[in-house]
Each structure stands twice: as C-alpha cells, then as structure tokens.
Amino acid sequence: MGQTTDPAPPPPAVRLLPVAVLLWLAGVYLRIPVLVAPPLAPFISDELGLSQALTGALTTIPILMLAVGSMPGSLAISRIGPRNTLALAMLIMVFGSAGRGLAPDTLTLMVASAVMGFGIAMMQPSLPALLPRWLEPRHLAIGSAIYMNGMLMGEFIGAGITLPVLMPLLDNSWRSTLLAWSLPALIVAATLFIPRRDFDKPVRKPAWLPDWSNPLTLRIGLLLGMSGSLFFGLNAYMSNLLEQQGRFELLADALFWFNFAQLVASLIMLKMARSWVGRKGPIITTAIIAFSGTLGTVFLTGWWTIISATAMSVSAGILLIMLVALPPLLVTSQETGRLSAGNFLVGYTVAFTVPMIGGLLADWTGDARHAILFILAYCGATLPLTFTLNLKRQQRQTAS
C-alpha cells in the first residue's frame, strides 16, 4: 500500500501580509476616485459652470460605467489573466481620474469621468478572480473581506478627508486634489507583480460572457442590486427626506453616520468573514435588517430616521461583502471572473436604474418618500431570493 504524504504546510502569516496589503490598496481604489467627486463638486461647478444635472453626473456616470465595463473586464481576465487585467484597469482608472483634474472643459470632464468608471468596472471582477490564484481556499473569505474593507474605507476616506485635510495642503485646488488622489494608484498597479503566488493556473482560455443558465449569475446580481439600490438611493435622497420632515439641519450628521456605518460593516466582516461567508443564514438576516431599516427611514422622523438609515447601511454593507465573496467559493477559478462580471453587470444596472426611477416618481408625486418606497418595492420582490440561493460549490465548470 502506497505511503500517503502530508500536504505542504501553509505559508507563514508574514508571507501573506504583502498580498493582504495589495488587496486592500486595490480595494481602496474601487471607491476613492468616485467618492471624491461630491465634496469637490461645488468647486468644479464654480470653475466650469456646471448645471445641477452635470454636477450630479460626476458621480452617476462612474456608477453607470460600473455596469457597462464589467464585461470588458471579464473578457480581459479570460485573455490576459486577472493580475494583468487588474493592473491594466488601474492604469485606465488613473488616466480617467487624473484626466478629470486636467480637464479644460465640461465635455472633457465627463469623458474622463466615464473612462475612470470604466477602469474601476474592470477592476471589480479582477479582484475575486485573482483571489484563488493568490490565496489558498481556506483564505478566500478573509481575502474578500480585506479588499472589501479597503473599498469601504475608500468611501469613507474619499468623502471624509478630502475637504478638511487634503485640499488645504494643496492650496485649495480641486485639480491638484484629484491628481493627488489618482497618481499613487500607479505605484499600486506596479507592485501587483511582486507576489509570485499562483495556486491555481488555468489550463485553457476560460469563457468570459455571463452564463445566464447558471442561476447564480442573476440571483447574486439581483441581490447586489438590492444592496446597491438601498445604499446609493438613500444617500441620494436623504437630504430631500429630511427637508420634507423639516429636519434639514440633521443632514450632516445623517450623512456622516450613514457612510461611517459602511466602515463598521467592513470591520465586522474582517472578524466574521470565515464564519459568515458562504452561509445562507447571515445573508437572509442582513437583507431583512436592511429592508426593515429602510422602512424606518420612511415612517420615522428626526434622529430615528438617522438611526434606521445607519442600521440599514451597516447591514447592507455586510450583505455586499458576503455576496461579492461568493463567486470564488462557489465556482472554479476559471469561472470566477465571468460570474463576478455578470453579477456586477446586473447589480450595478439595478443600483443605477431603480433609484433613478424612484427619483422620477418622487418628482411626479412631490413626495420624497416615494423614491425610497419604490426602492423598497424592488427589495421586497428580491428578498425571497435569499432563501433559495444554492451555496453549494459547483464541481464542474459551467458550459461556455
């Protein structure tokens, strides 16, 4: 009888640290270029004479591109691999983000915003596709939590320190501020090639178009749309909601706690990723809490609205991380890129469309609550999907 051999011991934690740092930094740049626009918008608008719609487009155009660019990202992953795709995507993101700081007119500014969003969209499926090549299976959940912590930290950093810290250091120049946030990403892109870890090398060119016969493509995507619609929608309509309540003076506090809650969610998941990722119970629970918290923002007033919105933001952030972490756990490494890309295509299309339709409904009725209620209607229709998700790993690659 042949002698069995023990598997090689896992690498020490110190060797995993550079990978964790790179994942976190890449995650930061999933959001900082987008979230620096709102605090800088008044300065950009004053110099270039932007209308309210164009000022809002500084944020909404990149969000729309998060859906549009997911398929090119999947194609690139299938042809040049996730590491090269991530590096290329970061270069595109830097080109667009820095281009905004150099834009001489409105048209150039909008084109640069679209290019930046396209680069970020290509980054999104690259990260989950890279995880099985850099990390052992038992580290996949914490790897997802690390780069998602970077992403949510990017939201808080970009929105929180741009005006009080960075702009004063740069003579209050919005152009220099955009360049200062953008250019360090070039260093991150270059250092992506330092790790030599590659646990799972593909043996053939994998398919890249979404496999719509795989129910995970649509189901995870629709649930991502639920999380995104709640977060982006409530962020967008919070001011209208509080103004309608006669409590507009609470807006600064509301936005601070609402966005800070995303950071709390990411820290919770750093602790709980191994226990919660890949399990149906936490997905169901956080989806229900997010739905209930949003109901509270509509039917409660004042600080109770803020408390409800904060609870929603924490639970929606946790839900987002758990959903994004699923593809590396459920499909082979060759299929991870296109499953993630399909999820992001569906999710961000919903996250852009549903709040926009809700806003049109609120404009028509004159009641800001109707925007949130429309988002809740979508979420109520989507919530049953959490009970029917099949979280068993697929042993075979899905058909091309």
Descriptors for this entry?
0% strand, 400 residues, Growth Hormone, Chain: A, disordered N terminus, 2 domains, mainly alpha
What does this structure look like?
With 400 residues, the chain is an all-alpha fold. It has two domains: 15-189, Growth Hormone, Chain: A (Up-down Bundle); 209-391, Growth Hormone, Chain: A (Up-down Bundle). 78% of the residues lie in helices and 0% in strands. It has 18 helices and no strands. The chain has helices at 13-28, 32-35, 37-48, 52-68, 70-80, 82-102, 106-134, 140-169, 174-182, 184-191, 215-245, 251-276, 280-299, 303-324, 326-330, 333-365, 369-382, 385-388. The radius of gyration is 21 Å and the shape is globular.
Offer a concise description of the structure.
With 400 residues, the chain is mostly helical. The protein has 18 helices and no strands. Helix 4 (52-68) runs antiparallel to helix 16.
List the helices and strands and how they pair.
Elements lengths: L12 H16 L3 H4 L1 H12 L3 H17 L1 H11 L1 H21 L3 H29 L5 H30 L4 H9 L1 H8 L23 H31 L5 H26 L3 H20 L3 H22 L1 H5 L2 H33 L3 H14 L2 H4 L12
The second-level CATH architecture of the largest domain is Up-down Bundle
Uncertain runs:
1-14
Total number of beta strands: 0
The coarse overall form would be: globular
Judged by helices, strands and strand pairing, the structural class is mainly alpha
What is the residue-mean pLDDT, rounded to a whole number?
Answer: 84
Number of domains: 2
Distance between the termini: 41 Å
